[in-house]
Amino acid sequence: MGKILLMGDRYTASLFRMMGSEAEVIEDPFNLNSEIEKARKREDIDLILITRDIYEPVREKIDSLISTQAKPLITIIPSPFSESKPMDVRKMILRALGFG
Hints:
Blueprint: E1 3-8, H1 10-18, E2 22-25, H2 32-40, E3 45-51, H3 52-55, H4 59-68, E4 73-77, H5 89-96
Parallel strand pairs: 1-2, 1-3, 3-4
């Protein structure tokens, strides 16, 4: 089983590090694309979690990458600083299977 990598704010990154996961602090959301490209080159990562507050400003650039990416799987999670919205689990599963 591969590793989980979180990309997000300092607070969320430190929480994931305490749980034993790797975490990258992203100060500028416009650097997210290059950070994802670096992580895609690593063979040991199976899942990339991106906090919503980092994702929202660059949504248009990242959505096409997320929808075509098979490994590692990339998904968006809420952070303490983002507005909470209900998750459509069915849509997430379909996207992960390549149907969404």
